[in-house]
Structure formats: C-alpha cells, structure tokens
Fold this sequence. Notes:
The structure holds two protein chains of two kinds. In chain A, 68% of the residues lie in helices and 13% in strands. Chain A has helices at residues 2-22, 27-34, 38-50, 70-89, and strands spanning 24-25, 54-58, 64-68. By secondary structure, chain B is mainly alpha-helical. Chain B has one domain. Chain B is built from nine helices and no strands. Chain B has helices spanning 3-9, 11-32, 34-40, 43-68, 74-97, 117-133, 137-160, 165-189, 195-220. In chain B, helix 5 (74-97) packs parallel to helix 7, helix 6 runs antiparallel to helix 7 and helix 7 (137-160) packs antiparallel against helix 8 (165-189). Chain B is globular and about 50 Å long. The interface between A and B is medium-sized, with 20 and 32 residues.
Amino acid sequence: MTAKKRERLEVIKDIIYTINKNREIKPTRLLYASNLSPQMFKEYINELIEKKFIKLEIDEKEKKFFSLTKKGQDFLQEYKMIESFIENFGL
Amino acid sequence: MDIYQIILANKELLKILYALAISLICMVIVVKTDKIYKLSLHEGLRYFRNAFFFYGLAFLARYLFGVILPAINYTIIFPIFEYLIVLAGFFLLYSLTWKKFNPTETGHSSLINSHVIIFHAMAIIIALLDTLLGTFNFMFYSQIILFFYASLIAYSNYSKNPKRKFLKFYFIAMLFELSIWILNLLTATLFSFNRLLLLNIGIINVIFFLLILYGVAKVTKK
Lengths: 91, 222
C-alpha cells in the first residue's frame, strides 16, 4: 500500500510537471506523457481540475489544452518539501 | 531554596505556562503543516496534524480550564482530557500505519470515518473506565502499548531509510513519549504521584513536543 500512495503523489507531480514544462499541452499528448491508462488518466485529470491544480481551456481553433493554475505551480514548488516531510516522519 | 522548591511553590502558574507552551507548540505544528497538507492532501499528514490538534486541545482542557475555571469540576475535566489525549495518541499511531488499513474512501472526514470511529470509541471507553474506577491506569497502559508499537514502527522506518536524518529524531521522540507513559504509570502506582517525578515527566513531555516541532520547522523551512 505504501507504494500505491507514493505513486499517487508522484503521478500528480509528473502530470503537473509535464504541463508546466510545456506551458500548454493537448489532452492526448498529456495522456501519452503520463503513462497512465485512459481510465486512470481521466480520474487523475478530473481530480486535478476539481482541486484547481490544472485547468482545461479551449483556444480559438476549438482545440482543448491543459494549463497550470497558480495552485498547480505552488504544488510543484512545494513538492520537494512535501516529499521530504512524508519521508522524514515516515507518514 | 533550590530550583525544584521554587517550581513547586509556583506550581499553579507553571501549570498554566506548561499548558500554554504545549498548546502553542501543537498549534505551530498544525499551522506549519497546513500548506503542505492542503497541497498534497496526504492521509498520513492529515492524521499527524489531527494528533497534534488533539494534544493541544487536551492540554488546554486539563490545565487551563482546570486552573482558570476551577468551578468546572475535575470529574468533568479529567475524562475530557483522557479522551482527547488517548485520541491524539491513536491519531499519531494511525499516521504511521494508515497505509496498512487499505483506505479506499476519498474525500472523507479525517475526524469521523469508518477507520477512526474505533479510536473515538476506544478513547471514550478508556476515559469512562478510568473515571468510574477512579484510576488513570487504563490510559497509562493503552498509551504504553500504543507508543511501544509506534516506537517499533519509527525504528523500522529509520532502519529502512537511515539517510533521512529526522527519522532518527522521530524514533527518539517516540521513545521519549513511551518513557513518559511508563514513568507516569510508575509514579501513580509506586510513588503516590510524587511531585518531583511529575515535574520531570512534564519536562520530558515538553522535550517530546519540541523535538517534533524542531523536525517540522526544519523540513518546512524554505
């Protein structure tokens, strides 16, 4: 179970990191980059949108893309601290 | 007049300062972990914060209300104190073991859910048994077992990842808390609540909370 939960936080970090690196990214490209099944990808994306870490936008050509919110950028900056806290306290 | 006599002569004032100090340390721990909890929504962090929230409340209830509001009968304050402190201990242990219990609920309350409801029930039973039998032994024994187990887990975490320096401190902190509960039991059963012993237990207790605060401050500092 440890690995499962660790992975969850890591998956979230990876998705946010990928969006941040690309600034804007299409859903299909993000799905490939995330290395998740479409079902899992949908669950994570819905969760991240719900928690306001990322947002789904539509450009003038009606193309969808993801971008990071301020909260998502904060998460990326604080991720190392979060990881360090969890490991230092064995949580 | 030695230092112990001075302390014992001002014990009511010191009880308030002691409660304030521990409650303040607990409040700082909860506040300092607020941001990383809100960003990560990590379950272990959630229960860790719950533990220190309830420790803070427990010391406020016992000493501040007991001294500032003496009209509130001790037969009311002590069961509340016991309930809060036992619950805090359970939350601290659960923060180390939650992954083993296959938590499948998401978005649930961390104060009342199907996993922690048993902690509330056990804390109430322990507080009631001690109140009805006029003893503290149920609380002492439950906390000794709990912190013995927590010490083993903390040691196991440290031995698996010795590079993480605070894991060693956390193991030491758990041993401190285990020794506090053993000393409490011995003081109550063998030394008729000897004041000097209780004073030393209080000092070790402050060291325990300061160790945790030190770790939290060190890890969360930018």
